[in-house]
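in:
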């Protein structure tokens, strides 16, 4: 992360399914106007540091041309929270945990689904333990939020 970057952190529980898929999508499709201005990473509230993304997550992302095979899980920390300008969470549970870690340094924490075009934020289902269809369903929800995240970033990052 550089000092000039706007740092976006994507958070789920284990950092092996939803947040790596979201991180991969956000990085892969990052508009040129935001390139070099935005840094995207992920973490998990209960991650085991170093774990690889789940095989179904890898497969679903590979199917849309995104390689997350190099992803390694990391635990959400107060340091990560403090160094982030925007934190996108998958569940209301994550929202509460991030807010607790950021009490002394308020950061912008939002449910990822807030950026979906059709309404109120809701939890992105955790596909862990499910079949490929569960991962595809979560990835589809995440995908539907990506353009909204970019539109939001456009409003808060001065682009030329």
């Amino acid at each position: 992360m550089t000092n000039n970057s706007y740092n976006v952190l994507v958070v789920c529980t284990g950092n092996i399914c939803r947040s790596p898929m979201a991180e991969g999508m956000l990085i892969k499709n990052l508009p040129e106007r935001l390139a070099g201005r935005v840094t995207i990473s992920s973490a998990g509230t209960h991650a085991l540091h170093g774990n690889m993304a789940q095989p179904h997550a890898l497969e679903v992302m590979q199917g849309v041309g995104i390689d997350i095979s190099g992803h390694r899980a990391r635990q959400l920390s107060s340091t990560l929270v403090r160094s982030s300008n925007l934190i996108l969470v998958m569940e209301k549970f994550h929202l509460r945990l991030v807010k607790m870690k950021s009490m002394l340094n308020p950061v912008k924490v939002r449910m990822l689904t807030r950026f979906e075009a059709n309404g109120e934020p809701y939890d992105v289902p955790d596909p862990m333990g499910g079949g490929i269809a569960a991962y595809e369903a979560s990835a589809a929800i995440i995908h539907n939020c990506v353009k909204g995240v970019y539109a939001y970033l456009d409003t808060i990052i001065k682009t030329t």
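note: Residues 22 and 142 are 6 Å apart (CA to CA).
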